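Sequence in, structure out. First:
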Amino acid sequence: MLKRLFDIFFSSIGIIILSPILLFIGLWVLLDSPGGVFFRQVRVGKNGTNFRLFKFRSMRVGSEAKGQLTVGAADSRITPSGLFIRKYKVDELPQLLNVLIGDMSLVGPRPEVPRYVAMYNAEQRRVLEVRPGITDFASIEYVNENELLAKAAEPEKMYIEEIMPAKLKLNMKYIQEQGLATDFSIIFNTLRKIVS
C-alpha cells in the first residue's frame, strides 16, 4: 500500500513538472515522421495480466512487424528524434501514465512482451508476482542493451540466451531486496547512469 501511494504521488509530480518537456518531445516526434506521438505495446504485468505500455514513438509506423528487438543507431527503423530520445531514455517518460493508472510501478522488473514471457521457466515467472516498473537493477546494468545487440551476429539469439536470463536474475535480486530504500537507490543510480 505504501509503495502504491509512493508511485501515485511521484508519478503525478513527475507528470506535472515534466509537462513542458513532454509537450516538446511530443511535438518533435509528431513533426519528425508520419504517425502518432505514442507507441503502445502489449506487455505482461503483475500476475501475468497484459497491459499496454506507453512510450514516445521512436520508430517509423509499422516497424514492430519487422521484429520486436532494436539494435541502436544501426536500426534503420528508428527516426532521427527517436535516436535522441532513446539515447537519453526519455522515450520511457510516458510510462508515468502507466504508473499513475496502476499498470506499473516506478521501480520494478521491466515488463516483457508476451513472446518472451512464454519462454520463462517456472522460477523466472516469479518476476510476474510483483508490479513491473520503469526502472530496476537490470535497466541500470543493461542501459546499453541496444548497442550490445547491434554488435551481435544474431541479436535475438543473444537476447534470448544471454541477456534475458541475466536480466531475470537481476529481477529476482530486486524481489528479494525490494523496499522504499532500494527503490530510491535504483532511481538515483538510474538517473546517474543516464547522465553519465
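Second:
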Amino acid sequence: MLDGAHGGFDINAVLHGKTTPVFFGSAANNFGVEHLLKGFLEYSSEPLPRKAKNGLVPLDHQAFSAFVFKVQTNMNPLHRDRVVFARVCSGIFYRDMPVYHARLGKEIHLSDPYNLFGRSREAITEAYPGDIIGFVTKLDFRVGDTISIDPLLVFEEIPRFAPECFAFLHNTLSSNYKPFRKGLDHLLAEDIVQAFFLQNSGHATPLLGAVGPLQFEVMQYRLKDEYKAESRLEMMPWKILRWLKSSLEDKDLRQRLPQEAELATDDQNRRVILFSTDWSLQYFSEKNPLVTFFDTPPVDT
C-alpha cells in the first residue's frame, strides 16, 4: 500500500508546504519518537516571515507578534487547564507583557508562558521568532488568533476546507447540561469540528460540520471521557457547504434557496449556504449569477 501511495520525497515541496513527511510510530510506547524529532530537525526550515492581512511581517519587525496554531484542553485533567500554543513570528516576547488579542479586540496579559515537551513544562521569561510558547489561560482563544503589541497586525488564518458531514449534538441528561456545554465549547475551540449557526434555528447548540464522521466520534468520546457528558448525534441531510459573497440581503437569499437548502453563518459571522446535492448547488448558481461561491472562507480584500 505504501509503495503504491508514496509519491516520492522532495525537500523543496516540503519547505513550500506542498507535501508533508509522514512518520510512523507510537508515542505511548516511545517507538519512533526520536526518529520523528530528528526528521523534524533535518527537514524543517529556519523561521520564516509570516503573511498578515496587510503584508508580510519580517522576523526583525519591531512589534512582537505570535500566531495561535493549537488549543488543547485538559492537559492536566485535575485542573481542567486549557493550554494555548502560539508561534512567535516577530519581535521579542517577555513574560507578563501586555499584548493585544486581535479577534477579541482587547488588551490581555500572558503571565504564565511555558516551553512544553510532552508532559514536561518549563517556565520561560522571553521568546524569539520561531519559538513556540504555551500558556494556560481561561480567555477565549481559538486556532488562527493573532496576539501582538500592534493592534493593526492580524495574520491570515489557517485555511479551512468545506465540511461534507453535518450534525447536531444533543445532551442526553438534563442534569449534565453544564459539563456538556462546557466541554462542547472547549472542544470547538480546538477546531476538532467546525461550528455553524442556522438562521432562525430552534437548536440550543450550533450545527457541527466535519470532513468525515470520525471527527464526530472523537468529539463524543472526549465529551464522555473528559467531561463525563453523554451525547446523542443527530445527522443532518446536507452534503455540501459553500461560503459566499453577494450584495443580496439575507431575506432575498432565503427566498431564492432551493428546497432543503439553508442559510447560515460560520464562527466568524461569514455567510454560508448548505445544499443537499450537487444538482441543487449548480441550479442555484445558474439562477443567481450575483452570488459567488467559495469552498474555503473568502479572504477580504
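Remark: Helices lie at 2-5, 11-15, 33-43, 177-189, 214-227, 250-256, 278-287.
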